[in-house]
Amino acid sequence: MLQQSLFIIMAALVLLTAGLVAFRPRPIESAMWLILNFFFTAGLYVLLGSHFVAVIQILVYAGAIMVLFVFVILLLNLDPKELGDETSLHWSSVVMFVGMLSFLLLILHVAGPQTLEPMEGLLPDSKFGSVEALAQKLLTDYVWGFELAGVILLLAIVGVGMLAYRKPKPKTPKFLDHQERPV
Amino acid sequence: MSAPIAYVLFLSFAVFCFGACGFLIRKNALSLLICLELMLSGVNMAFVGFSRLHQNEGGNVLYFLVITVAACESAIGLALILNFFRLKKSVRLDEARALEG
Amino acid sequence: MVETFLSNPDFIKWAFFAGKILLLFGLAFGVVAPVMIWVERRVAGLIQDRYGPNRVGPFGLLQSLADGIKLLLKEDLRPTEIRPVFYLLAPILSVIPAAMAFAVIPFGPPTTLGGLLPTPMRLQIAELNVGLVYVLAISSLSVYAIALAGWASNNKFSVLGSLRASAQMISYELAAGLAIVSVILLSGSVDLMAIAQSQTEMWNIFPGFLAFLVFLPAIFAETNRTPFDLPEAEAELVVGYHTEYSGIKFGLFFLAEYVNMATVSALCILFFFGGWEFLPWLSWEKIGVDLNTFWFIPTIWFFTKIAAFLFFFVWVRWTLPRFRYDQLMSIGWKTLIPIALLNILITTTYLVFEKAS
Amino acid sequence: MFLSEYLGVAVLLILGLLAGCGAVAAAWLFGAKRYYPNKTSAYECGIPSEGAENERFSVRFYLVAVSFILFDIETIFLVPWALGFRGFLDNGHGLYIWTVGLVFLAVLTLGLVYEWRKGLLDWNT
Fold first, then answer.
1. What is the mean pLDDT of residues C99-109?
2. Between chains, do B79 and D66 touch, taking CB under 8 Å as contact?
3. B with C: 3 or more CB pairs under 8 Å?
4. pTM for this structure?
5. Which of A176, C140, C210, D1 is deepest in the core (most CB within 10 A)?
């Protein structure tokens, strides 16, 4: 029973921070709320039993990707008029949001009531959610995914290299003093 | 005895909806990418939820692949935003009018 | 009535749990930080052939207490054009990861505390089986405090200092992560208790010397200690990201730095110097120490190793000169990371072909 | 059952939070508050600060953060590989796991070499 109540609390916190991320105007605030959201999602994954995934969620999302976002927000150091903070909360988006949620209730109703029973507990010695079980699965069935992830990372490195880097113009002239300079 | 799969799915769909709504109503590029990260995090929740339901590690492995794509996507997205900022001196999306007829 | 209360296992389990937390939290925040301030200034005096603080209390022992009270009572200066929420959030955000990092550090073999506990329990606050990755995750969170501190104080020097400090911490965290991968290869486990127990015969520093060569500069850079503390250097950047902080907020940054230093040196000992084992080939069992009665000897030996390592931190600070910023970054990216990748290659090839033969 | 492990983490989180907020609140409570303009202006070694308050900084910091993410994810993939290495080694698939890991490492070392040659890692500014 403790698990259910903890799950409800964690889910409520995740939804609260997700709403704050979506509807707070300034990017630095929504970035901070998103970091909190990732923490509560990691807590949710712990409740679902996958410990390694929860720690990776903190390490990669909250510890690496959001650092990049905070860096760019600090780097650009914009004052509000350049930011375009005002959000155009249009009634169409509210309707769309409610439509999506009701659509989900429809699916759950069609999928059948058995989705509402609690998932059966883990066996005491089951290694679900640990690093060994994931390593076993990752390196046998999903080896091609493992290699292709490396290739995707390489593509991203090359892409960023092309997009964001300009060769600095050589400030000092190329000619040394004793060489003559073209007129 | 963990929570039913319906709760996990409902939660992941709701987080995805928040991300999608934030994506549609924001006017500056940085918040756009932040809401995109929120949508990806919602999708990850569904993967882990199903992985827990069938007690099979496949969902967790897919979670890893989605994280790789999310990181590469936000890296490239921010590179584009930096170039856009270098051009237009602001990240307001209303400035991006070059393609308007 | 009291015996039944004392002897029922639940009470003992929770008392043991609370005792572990109080011991580690009290040690880290109450003992390590003040004593380290005192040790740092005394050793600096020793190296520069002068006295350290010796006015307040015997041998100046109460000096750090006096500093603490002074910091508390100083004026709560708040410059005008700061961003108030993030200005106050930054010192708090620097203390939280420091406090959470030592949750998984084991400080002794599983014991029954000389018969007090019904079953042998682990001397570890949180027995996570993903302990190592948890430590990596928490140490990657301490970048936020520095980035926010610089940006919130809205001062040119502090913004530049905070960007440089976080860029340095990021690149050396990467080198530390790759060094830890080869430690996992050597010890074959991610749980910190298992890593320490796998080193009874051979410490990891002998097969994994290259990994240690990468890990040591990485932990110096991660806690912004010399020779990697350019962003905090008084001469260059006016104390870098905490220029606008004064009083206890400034003190919190240093408290977090010292606690991080203790945690990181405990990790280095666990990974490479065999945790609480006596000597490389002389584990406690070999010497014949009966761990049931003398259960506390490995723990005390572990804490003396940490103290030695902290002394090494201070000793390096007052002997080595500071790196220039481009040297510092090129060391991080162009020497440490290639060496770490090379080390992974060597370790795996050694393991495969040693197994094959 | 397994939740009690995370209780330690939660307690330490709360203790850290209390220590931080307690210290800041104590400073706010005890500290004197005599502000006057030249004390509360930004610190410029005494001379009034000139130059734009938020001029732009070089894109170098962005490049470091991006390469950090991409190589951090490489470390994430290497952790399960390093852990599963011994298991595969014991039941005879040593060479298989070796080649899998080495291909992954080679691809990403290629990325590092690309960054090195293109000059993304130089800090001559």
1. 89
2. yes
3. no
4. 0.89
5. C140
